[in-house]
Amino acid sequence: MSPVAYLRAVAGKIFHRSQLASDLDEELLSHIQSRADDLEHSGLSRTEAERRARIEFGGQEKFKDECHEALGANFAESMVQDIRLSVRVLRKSPGFTLVAVFTLALAIGANSVVFGVLNALILRPLNVPNAASLWSIERGNNKAINHSYPDYRDLRERNRSFEDLAAYNVTAVGIDTGNHPAGAWILETTGNYFDTLHVQPYLGRFFHASDEHGPNSAPYIVLTHQFWHTHFQDDRGVVGRVVQLNKHPFTILGVAPPDFRGTLLFVFPDFWVPLVNQEQIEGLDVSTDRGNRDLLMVMGHLKPGVSKAQAISDLNSIGRDLEKNYPKEDGHMTFSLTRPGLAGDWLGDPLRGFLAGLMLLAGLILLAACANLGSLFAARAADRSREVALRLALGSRRVRILRTLFTEAVIISLFGGAIGLGGSIVLLRALSVWRPFPSAPLTIAVYPDASVYLVALFLALASGFLFGAVPVRQVLHTNPYEVVKTGSAARIGRRISVRDLLLVGQIAICAVLVTASLVAVRGLVRSLSSNFGFEPRNAVLVETSLNMAGYSGESVPIIQKKMIDALLAIPGVTSVGSVDRLPLYYGANGSHVFSDQTTDLRPANAAADVVVYAVSPGYFAAAQTTLLTGRSVDWHDDKNSPRVAVVNHQFAGKMFGSVSNAVGAYYKLADGSRVQAVGVVEDGKYASLAEDPQPAMFLSMLQAPAREVALVVRASRDPQQLVAPIKRTIESLDPGLPFTIEMWTRELGSALFPSRMATFSLGVLGLLGSMLAVTGIFGMAAYSVSKRLRELGIRIALGGQRAEVLKTAFGRVFQLLALGSIAGLFLGVLASRVLAYIVYQATPRDPLVLIAVVLAMSLLGLLATWIPARRALSVDPLVLLREE
Amino acid sequence: MTDQAQILPGTLDLLILKAVSLGPLHGYGVLLRIAQISGQALLIEQGALYPALFRLVRQGLLKASWGTSDNNRRAKFYELTTAGRKRLREEVDGWNRLATAIGSALGAQPEEV
Fold first, then answer.
1. Chain A residue with minimal CA distance to B58?
2. What is the ipTM score, two decimals?
3. CB A766 within 8 A of CB A838
4. What pLDDT, in 10s, does the model give residues A290-330?
């Protein structure tokens, strides 16, 4: 039968039931009447004729049933019957239904949120045509994602594996569209960027490789659809308009399509600028500096038919050549490929680990929820054993009864799944528009798509069948005769039931989750209390890019000194200093240093790879970094004086053996210049909270001018009150300078963001797990009390002690709780490696965590058995015995 | 009516199709027609006719519509659809082949083997 006909049969049966039945009745009646007519003609009386006709016809009801079956769609029909019955049954116990739906909604919601994030950040490719062949190039064993421009050019020109290679870089720029100058986040790209990605413009045109004719030759920008929308109100006449970037005129060429938001998943730029104009944007030009690897990420589509391995060996052979030709700059030139979007494996690996761990925990939650619902269903099935027995006795098939039970389970799971999915969609959308840091373009774009819906549906159905399957054995083994004879309260002292096992499993899962979240909380507390090497409290940050207001070269230190002096004049300010890049702010700049004796300055001969900062006099005081010995940099350390640096404790130990040896000692920078260490400061955290102590050097800002400036303003009064005077002060110095003012504690949020997010998500999962454990234990305890109410009443009537009664009622429950908790704790400790991936300094072997887990589990047990215990103790034997 | 033959399983559908192919009939009419064309030789249980009719309608071989019978009673009339006509031809061919084969098998003489 064709599907259409089948659907018609189903629809007919479901929607025209009574019509079908009366039609059939009428047809059969008409038949019997016609037969009776004939019989009457042959001489019988009408009554006798009709009687004979009916007898001849045979069993009417039987044939009616057969006709009904002949109409087809019987499976669908009995399904509809099952659904009707289930809905009626579920509506009769709204408490049970609500708890079940709510439990599943939470579990499935948690899963679809985690999957939504996983899907958006890891599974879903970048939104460009043919994303499967798009790869990003990483270098060396530590998988550095950044390359120098000359290396990039060599790779692009000499490889035979890629269609083309494009390079890009994230940076900030000041944009003036005629109103007020403001900061914007951009991608600086090579001219072939859009062509390499095969992206087509939404409006106007993109720039191309043919637009590049040497430094500053392509003053063009391409807007993102979002920036066009918010800043130009979808004005189609914007193409050809000239805007000022860092006081240089740039022409708007076009607008990118709305679904193309750059090539990084967590940074959505405002517009694109050709890299050849880097000098105007960043005040420097790296196009000839082979050693400068701070900037460029490189990516491209593989040619059709070229495998990943072939491309890597192709790149490596170019790399060997580069090592030979440029020994000074190009150290270890081996390559690997990774997916673009997450800035390579540097961010991608931990993120993947974290999300996989989270997905695992969310899966555990769902399992716990299924165990919970499974035991609820088993309990219900036991309560309904009389009904089941009756149905069996009346000739219903066991399969049919199981189908009804499964239908109930699936209805609950679908409802729960729908609610959970709805909640997760709301959450994912909120997450997608959330900008965790006002001053940075960071986004978590995790808009849900079809695969999220599908996974939620699948999980809902799978869990429905999972917990629906728990009472199957019970039903299959029901002996109707026994049940009807003895009633359902028969078996109490049974050995170990499925329900017990489920409860133990569920408690174990919950204990794992509680362990995980406590470990995470502890890790966060530790990282918050660890020594950063600076003091973020009571400090205000003023961040700006001097090149946005047209400063460069000689004018940079001058304006910087002016700013520092002006800020120092504000009442309540105790010290002010500047640094080119804040520690713990999106990584740190690194550089090789050499011992004073080294003459061959190739990377392989470097004495150390150190973190570099350029600081102004007064920075250490303002940041409250302790000076261990020697002096800080001062205003005399300018470019007419010998180069000096302050180094940290780690640097001193590594380069000179000890702190006392360091002061006055010399070493060499990668460019060959000799530097004298004049002071030693304490170690700090530079790139991330989780790092081991790193060597660091602080050069004098006057000798190493930097356009990026963060001024640290230390206050003796409430720093919030300083915001307005600081703003006035800076604006009076240069009204055209875009800048931001922020509390340092807030700015530090970015460094703490990963562990905060980890703690938050693990905490939520732990909470969910606890809730499930409470409802699971509660259900079990309440059920066991209600089953044994009569026994308990008799015990009390016979003078049983309260403690004894409680022991009888809950002994089993607490045994199971203890068993589950121990198993969970054990598993949690075993999973420490997974946790260490997720959280900074995470160790579940922490005694505090272990004690807290035990406490939490006992507390949950007490909480869950509180109400049933009250009920057990308040049993009035007289009332009970009368009821029976 | 002792010399009436029980119909072979599976042949009821064929008989119904054939009966209806001679002109639209209501259920009771189908019975009469089969009795008539088989020379009163084939016996069909009256009630058993209807499940078969419903099945044929569902398979799209027959279509049904309400009308009025000769003796002025409301009755449901069945007629062949195009698919039904095609099926009847196939079934008749198949039946004839089978009947010939069985006939020749049963008529075999010892000297022919």
1. A71
2. 0.84
3. no
4. 777 767 888 888 888 888 888 888 888 888 888 888 877 77
Domain ranges for chain A, please list them.
3-72, 131-340, 348-528+756-883, 539-747
- Per-residue DSSP letter, A809: H
Cβ of A456: how many Cβ atoms within 10 Å?
A: 25
* Angle subtended by helix axes A847-873 and A749-787, to nearest 10: 30
Which residue out of A23, A27, A39 would a mutagenesis test of the B interface target, given it has the greatest number of B Cβ atoms within 10 Å? A27
Helix (H, G, I), strand (E, B) or coil at A231: helix
Domain ranges of chain B: 5-103
Name the strand (E) or helix (H) holding A166: strand A166-176
Q: Answer for the pair A34, B28: CB distance below 8 angstroms, yes or no.
A: yes
Per residue, what are the HEC states of A293-319? CCCEEEEEEECCCCCHHHHHHHHHHHH
DSSP string, A703-727: TS--SEEEEEEEESS-GGGGHHHHH
Length of chain A: 884
Which residue from A31, A33, A67 is facing B51, i.e. has the nearest CB? A67
Q: What is the Cα–Cα distance from A72 to A625, expressed in whole angstroms? A: 84
Q: What is the pLDDT of residues A372-414, one digit of tens each?
A: 888 888 777 777 777 778 878 777 777 778 888 888 888 999 9
Query: Taking CB atoms and an 8 Å limit, are B47 and A60 in contact across chains?
Result: yes
User: What count of other Cβ atoms lies within 10 Å of the Cβ of residue A100?
Assistant: 27
Residues in B touching A60 (Cβ below 8 Å): 47
- Neighboring chain A residues of B55 at a CB cutoff of 8 Å: 70
Q: Considering only CA atoms, which of A358, A515, A479, A373 is closest in space to residue A845?
A: A515
Domain B5-103 in this protein, CATH class: mainly alpha
Q: Please, what's the b/e burial string for A20-33 (b: 16 or more CB within 10 A of its CB; e: otherwise)?
A: beeebeebbebbbb
Q: Would you state the structure tokens that stand for residue A631, as one six-digit string?
A: 């002096």
CB contact under 8 Å between B58 and A71, yes or no, is yes
CA nearest neighbour of B25 among B58, B56, B63: B63
Break chain A down into helix, strand, coil percent, rounded to 5. 55, 15, 30
Put simply, the answer to whether B69 touches A71 (Cβ < 8 Å) is no
B73 vs A1, A33, A66: nearest CB: A33
Contact criterion met (CB < 8 Å) for B47 and A35: no
Question: What count of CB pairs under 8 Å joins A to B?
Answer: 68
- Nearest-5° Cα angle at A808, A804 to A814: 110
Neighbours of A731 (CB within 10 A): 12
Per-residue pLDDT of chain B (113 residues; tens, 9 = 90+): 344 556 666 788 888 888 888 888 888 888 888 888 888 877 778 878 888 888 888 888 888 888 888 778 888 899 889 988 998 999 899 889 988 999 899 988 887 66
Q: In whole angstroms, give the CA distance from residue A716 to residue A697.
A: 28
Q: Helices A17-41 & A46-57, crossing angle to 10 degrees?
A: 120
Residue A46 with chain B: CB contacts under 8 Å:
none
The residues with which A167 forms a beta bridge, in sequence order, are: A298
How far is it, in rounded angstroms, from Cα A521 to Cα A759?
6
A58 → closest Cβ in B47, B69, B71: B47
Q: Is the C-alpha dihedral spanning A625, A630, A632, A633 positive or negative?
A: negative
Contact between chains at A5 and B26 (C-beta distance less than 8 A): no
Picking from A66-75, A509-518, B41-50, which range would have the lowest pLDDT averaged per residue? A66-75
Show the tokens assigned to A49.
Answer: 């004729």
Chain A residue with the nearest C-alpha to that of B72: A34
Write down the pTM of the prediction.
0.69
- Beta strands A203-204 and A627-630 are unpaired
Q: Which amino acid is at B46?
A: Q
